[in-house]
Every structure is written in structure tokens, then in C-alpha cells.
Design brief:
Blueprint: H1 7-17, H2 24-41, H3 49-55, E1 56-59, H4 61-68, H5 78-89, E2 92-95, E3 100-103
Antiparallel strand pairs: 1-3, 2-3
Length: 105
């Protein structure tokens, strides 16, 4: 038996189990990406908060640079520059105003 959930239930599930893994904006990016994957593949996904927290990250540009050692030009467009670097190594799901959400690698 499966249950279809919306963004509100999706964010509630994360906030009750892992409230510090993603911002609300980051969860919306993750939710939209998962929904798009379901549409593209025709396969429904099971909501497993812990697995998603292990598979994906939301980080600021500074955190990405510190964690992965990217040499990013500080030209006022650091978020997009970091996303471009990550795109070379993994799947970038999307951006919020201050963070990038990506598949861990």
C-alpha cells in the first residue's frame, strides 16, 4: 500500500526526524527533484528520510569549498560557481538563495 504525499507532509517528515539536514527551501528543491524523477522514470519513490539525508546534502558555497577543496573565483557569483564545480563531479538538484543541494559523492 502506498500513500501520495505533498510538500507539506514531506517537509514535516524531515523536520520530525532530521530537522537540521535541510532548510525548508532545500527540502522544496529535493521534493521537486524527486517528483521529476518519478515522472521521468514512471517509478514511485518511497519516502525514506534517513536514506535521503545520507544520499543528498545542502551546503553553502563556503561549506562546499571547505569540504571538497574547490578553487572558486570570488566574483560575487560564488553560489553558481560552486554549483558548476559540483556539476562536474555529481548531480546538482538545484539552488536556494544561499545553498546548493546535490547528490553526495
Amino acid at each position: 500500500m502506498k500513500q501520495t504525499i505533498g510538500l507539506s507532509q514531506f517537509t514535516d517528515a524531515f523536520m520530525s526526524i532530521r530537522p537540521n539536514n535541510f532548510s525548508y527551501e532545500g527540502l522544496q528543491v529535493l521534493f521537486d527533484w524527486i517528483e521529476q524523477q518519478e515522472q521521468d522514470t514512471g517509478t514511485e519513490q518511497e519516502l525514506d528520510v534517513i536514506a535521503l539525508c545520507c544520499e543528498f546534502s545542502e551546503m553553502t558555497p563556503k561549506e562546499v569549498i571547505e569540504s571538497y577543496g574547490y578553487d572558486v573565483e570570488d566574483d560575487g557569483n560564488e553560489l553558481n560557481n560552486v554549483a558548476d564545480c559540483l556539476h562536474d563531479d555529481t548531480i546538482v538538484l538545484g539552488l536556494t538563495d544561499t545553498t546548493v543541494i546535490f547528490l553526495n559523492f
